Amino acid sequence: MKKSKILFIDDDRDFVEANKIILNNAGYEVIPAYDGKTGMQKAINEKPDLIILDVILPDINGFSVCREIKEDPNLQNIPVILFTSIGAKPGGYPENIGIQHKADAYIEKPASPELLLEKVTFLLTTSAPKSKIESEKPKILLVDDDPDFLEATKQILLANRFEVITAKDGDEGIQKARIENPDLIFLDVIMPGKDGYTVCYE
């Protein structure tokens, strides 16, 4: 299985290295960047699955980097975690400021490895593209000339979270298959007009 790729942007090299070990041990690939401009360039080039971002950086602040990422159509779906000690200081930014800058999560330093991994796992899981079966109901076309059988089978499939389309003969089945583009077709063989073999061939 391909490892999820995490871009870690922080000017504290020792801090990055320590967290890189934690993330590597959890099965993630980590790409380090030590300032905002380098981080943006690596985000563009590497297309990471998630970005961990400090707020206080030597060139541009993390809020600006986060905003640039979220305004870039090619990067905006990458989840961003603001990971910083700024919220713990007098006059520091609270979590809602990070959210206003379109960050997906905020972690205040120091944080336990468990909290970091919990946030990373949650965001990678919830932001991952879902398969068709997970994101929408699979569509099934039932083609049969027996109306009672069609209705009974339809109710069973609906109860199991399928979308169901029915057709009462071969010609209607072919027409609905072309229009609806179902994921699966249940097809009777013996039908008036075109039999199931002919429909399947077409």
Automatic annotation (TrEMBL):
What SMART domains does its record include? REC
The record ties this protein, via Gene3D superfamilies, to: 3.40.50.2300
Q: Which domain of life is it from?
A: Bacteria
Entry keyword set: Phosphoprotein
Q: Name one GO biological process term.
A: phosphorelay signal transduction system
Fetch the Pfam families from UniProt. Response_reg
Q: Does the keyword Transport apply?
A: no
Q: Where is the Response regulatory domain?
A: 5-124, 139-202
Indicate what this protein is called per its UniProt record: Response regulator
Q: What species was this sequence derived from?
A: candidate division WOR-3 bacterium
